[in-house]
Amino acid sequence: MKESVKNFIAETSFTDPAKIKDDTMLFEEGIFDSMGLLSLISFLEENFGVQTDDVDLMEDNFKNLNAIEGYVKMKKSYSEV
């Protein structure tokens, strides 16, 4: 999952994938902005079947690959209940 998200981020932000590590701060390092976040949310919804609610739109959920992976796992576990 992380690899496909990483590749999506690299492609949409025109960033070398080698520069995106699991803990790279995507917003602080200027890799992603608010428009990139909207694209990422659409990608996650389409590819991983998660539904993003307004209350989920916090930078902490999407700040790096580790956070994104945790967010997707959390949303998928809630949808299974």
UniProtKB/TrEMBL annotation:
<protein>
    <submittedName>
        <fullName>Acyl carrier protein</fullName>
    </submittedName>
</protein>
<dbReference type="InterPro" id="IPR009081">
    <property type="entry name" value="PP-bd_ACP"/>
</dbReference>
<dbReference type="Pfam" id="PF00550">
    <property type="entry name" value="PP-binding"/>
</dbReference>
<dbReference type="InterPro" id="IPR036736">
    <property type="entry name" value="ACP-like_sf"/>
</dbReference>
<feature type="domain" description="Carrier">
    <location>
        <begin position="1"/>
        <end position="76"/>
    </location>
</feature>
